[in-house]
Amino acid sequence: VGHKRERAVSGKVKSFQLLAEGKRMKEVGRILKITHRTVAFHKYRVKDALNAKSNSECFQYAIKHLLIAA
Fold it and tell me: Which of 19, 26, 45, 53 has the most CB atoms less than 10 A away?
C-alpha cells in the first residue's frame, strides 16, 4: 500500500513539474503514460493542497521552492 501511495505522490509532483515547465496536459500524459484527465486531476489536487487560487500561484510556488527553473 505504501509503495502505491509513493508512486501516486511522485506522479502528482512530476505532473506538476512538467506543467509548470509549460508542457500541455496531453504532452504530460504521453510522457508519464497516463491520460490527460489524470494529469488534470493531479493539477487540481496540487492546487488544492497549496490552497492556490490560480495556476500561476502554483507555478510561482514551484519556482520559489526550486521545483522548476525560473
Answer: 19
Q: Which amino acid would we find at residue 51?
A: N
Distance (Å, rounded) from C-alpha 18 to C-alpha 39? 10
Angle of helix 36-49 versus helix 2-20 axis, rounded to 10: 90
Alpha helices, H only, the chain? 2-20, 25-32, 36-49, 55-64
Report how far residue 1's alpha carbon sits from residue 19's, in angstroms, rounded to the nearest whole number.
27
Torsion angle (degrees, nearest 10) of CA 10, 15, 16, 21: 130
Residue matched to cell numbers 520559489: 64
